[in-house]
């Protein structure tokens, strides 16, 4: 087993540079001979980045609290006195840890210790930080990561992806297979992804673009905007409007505090719209056989094709073009359906 300990000795290692900002690593160590397959990183006060497809190496970044301009000698002294900074490589596993040795009562002496890791694409991760963002890119395999105080960024990742943040936004793009992402305090932006997706935020908006597969997207405190989604979409918000365009497949959309606008280019199994506050606009493809169950304060249905059923001020129930997929709409305000 090969073990690398970074303490005061960092100052004497070749490649050490002054940690003036996040653009300059405090230290860089090659991993090209280690055939890394798994990365485990845990830091109490910095960001983590893991990227596949580049020259394997690990970079250590150390800055003072509030980006204090510290010399490398001062950083090394604080590391030796107050922190454990440890990197181990064994059996294809990289373990990088940065933590305080004791409670630092003078916050001005605290450090932010972050890691950037470059590995082969076929690498799994397990990442945790309590005070920074997490970024992963160009990887395959299982990815598990969590932060209590930063954002999550995922790009070009294929595999089982599970991430959580308690205080930041989430961005995921060009990724696939299984995606499970949660935030308690930010927005979620998902684009050009496929597979099975679960996206959840308690305090922000949802922006969904170019998704394919099964998507469950929920927010308790923001709007939902989606475009170019193919598959099955289940989305709900307790605090905003829902706007969906160029949707192909099945949709279940609801809001407790806003309007709903949905444009369908193809209907598969079902369409279910529930608007408890505000009006509902639903555009369906024409010349499609559908079963309609539309109810609201004022219901307007503009259709081409043969209709069999009942039309009233507050509801339209019946079959269009002989019937087919079920379309259910509920609204407390006006409801407009066109097909």
UniProtKB/TrEMBL annotation:
InterPro entries per UniProt: Toastrack_DUF4097
Domain DUF4097: from-to ranges: 235-324
Keywords: Signal
Stretch forming the signal peptide: 1-19
Protein name: DUF4097 domain-containing protein
Species of the source: Mucilaginibacter pedocola
Taxonomic path: Bacteria, Pseudomonadati, Bacteroidota, Sphingobacteriia, Sphingobacteriales
